[in-house]
Task: structure prediction
Amino acid sequence: MTLESTESVTELAGRMPPSFTLGVAAAAFQIEGALGEGGRGPSGWDAFAEKPGAIMDGHSPAVACDHYNRLPEDVALLQELGVDSYRFSLSWPRIQPDGRGSFNPEGLDFYDRLIDQLLEAGVSPMATLYHWDTPLPLEHRGGWLNRETAERFGEYAAAAAARYGDRVAQWVTLNEPLSVTLNGYALGVHAPGHALMFDALPSIHHQLLAHGLGVQALRAAGVTGSVGVTNLHAPVRPGSRSIGDRMVARMYDLLMNRIYADPVLLGRYPTLPVYARPWLRSIGRISDADLRTIHQPLDFYGLNYYFPVKVAVGRGVTPIPANTHKAVARLPFHEVGYPELSSTGFGWPVAPEHLAILLKELQDRYGDALPPVYITEGGASFPEPDKVEGTLQDEERVQYLATHLRAALDATSPGGMAAGVDLRGYYVWTLMDNFEWAAGYSQRFGLVHVDFETQARTPKQSFYWYRALSRARKNRAGQ
Result:
């Protein structure tokens, strides 16, 4: 029986609206490599990766998937996959190595080639302006703790809009400001490696300000594509019904979800509970002018979902990673997880039902203020060999993607628990195995296996499953 004829593929395709987008996502720093080639300057992540112990097993991002030099091969994979859209990111230090001032012609030309080749292959471009690779000179001046970085981002966005605005179908300003703040500035496990704990909160506001300035720059340039932002969200639940657990769950929800989405969608920061204010005071007083800048009309809202979170009061007994600041052990709460659920290679719980819950929470919180939604990242890593012969049978990934897609479609269909959410598409993370940040090459999320010694690309079973799903959806829509 072929993948195309399996009941799961045809049944799942039948649940999708005719215009539903199936896509795949990737990020420049994780796949391009080629530091110094074509005029790319260093980013904060290049500097962070050189620190002893920062990256698992000392892995280097210098080559990654060598996408910069293998662009036609990778676009051919996208064409073979048959997806509607490819979400990629522009490398800020490739386009503007100093983060201000002049722009790099070779860097601009590279993304011209990518966009043109995508269009020739029948794949719609979704461009993310910032996926964590801050130009190192800006990082040296404080990075996202410095308001200037937001202003420089607006200038960079204007240059990208002027160059690509006639061909990019969708624009994402920022990817996961939560991850940048939490992992990069609060815990120190990602670039730039600061362990500031609650003093990292100004990086939230400056990223959101950059988003607003970026939207304004895109609109001013008259881009023909739609404009949005992408946030990582997760439903947060208390570890028990105790008052303490419910209090810290509410605070964690504010820190993980609402402090990012409320200013963008509602034009205001969430009201902080009295008990949380001492920890959150470092964000400071926010001007009405900044909130107006952040609260820009959006064409869509990007949602990245991987797993739910459960927290309990107290310090807990979970071991603290060696490269995490010791102050984490003094936090008034800890994650307790979902030990009853299966998990991914990262140890993340597999919980498609919580994606439906999250969509309902977004609907309930934002109502008419919530634009159409794209799930801009969804996927999982599983233990896989460094080398393969033939097609890797990654049934766990196929099951993961099928159940999460089904949960999202069911929740947003007429009569579903989140029927008020206008869900427009789903992007798999990720096209091919890549440099997975601090985890190096130890976690493989790709639909395509990459041998990092030879750079050989080998499509996995999930690649062919997703291709079959895309074909079934297009056949149903009469495309």
